[in-house]
Amino acid sequence: MKVHNAEIIISAVSPKQYPETELPEIALAGRSNVGKSSFINTLINRKNLARTSGKPGKTQTLNFYLIEDALHFVDVPGYGYAKVSKTERAKWGEMIETYMTTREQLKAVVSLVDLRHAPTQEDIQMYEFLKYYEIPVIIVATKKDKIPRGKWNKHESIIKKALNFDKSDDFILFSSQTKEGKEEAWQAIEKYLP
Ligand code: GDP
């Protein structure tokens, strides 16, 4: 998709704040600092529309972006931020679970992991959660440019093994620096659009 128009529509915490449209939604999830904002900005050709999420003190909201009047990206607050309290973490979990298990417009989740590292426990839990609820998932492994070409395969294998990756899902190596994986990511997303 060639994106010319993208704007933030609403930051929601509860279902009554979700936008009342039938547009398909693609949610984006990942631990803080994985490169989620950079991924969103790359896909929509913007420098700084999506802001780094999950910093302490920042409100934990679902941010809905309208893309080309065709779909919504739903930016899920980053998980795994060490300084977040137990209560906040529980609220986060409830908000995500409610959204992902009840929202009919949700077509797929882009789950971001860092290509450099083995998936965290939370990365694995997110993947298991999505598989359990049969929510289509696209795995995007970020920061590809930080790993030498000769090691891409090895890192991909480590991630797939830890996730118990289902071969029918998409797995995309991505870099917001070089933009590698951008077209592939759009193609994977477009499979879920009408
Ligand atoms: P978020 O917290 O998941 O939204 O992560 P950000 O998109 O804010 O990225 C966190 C940090 O990683 C920032 O310093 C980015 O510049 C950096 N970063 C994100 N994606 C890439 C990438 O593909 N390559 C490199 N080298 N750095 C990246």
TrEMBL record:
Cofactor(s) this protein requires: Mg(2+)
Keyword line: Cell cycle, Cell division, GTP-binding, Magnesium, Metal-binding, Nucleotide-binding, Septation
Example GO molecular function: GTP binding
Residues in EngB-type G domain copies: 22-194
SUPFAM superfamilies from the UniProt entry: P-loop containing nucleoside triphosphate hydrolases
Any one Gene Ontology BP term: division septum assembly
PROSITE patterns found in the cross-reference section: G_ENGB
GO CC, alphabetical: cytosol
Keyword Methyltransferase: no
Pfam families listed in its UniProt record: MMR_HSR1 (PF01926)
Keyword rRNA-binding: no
InterPro entries registered for this protein in UniProt: G_ENGB_dom, GTP-bd, GTP-bd_ribosome_bio_YsxC, P-loop_NTPase
Family: Belongs to the TRAFAC class TrmE-Era-EngA-EngB-Septin-like GTPase superfamily. EngB GTPase family.
Protein name, as recorded: Probable GTP-binding protein EngB
Upper lineage: Bacteria, Bacillati, Bacillota, Bacilli, Lactobacillales
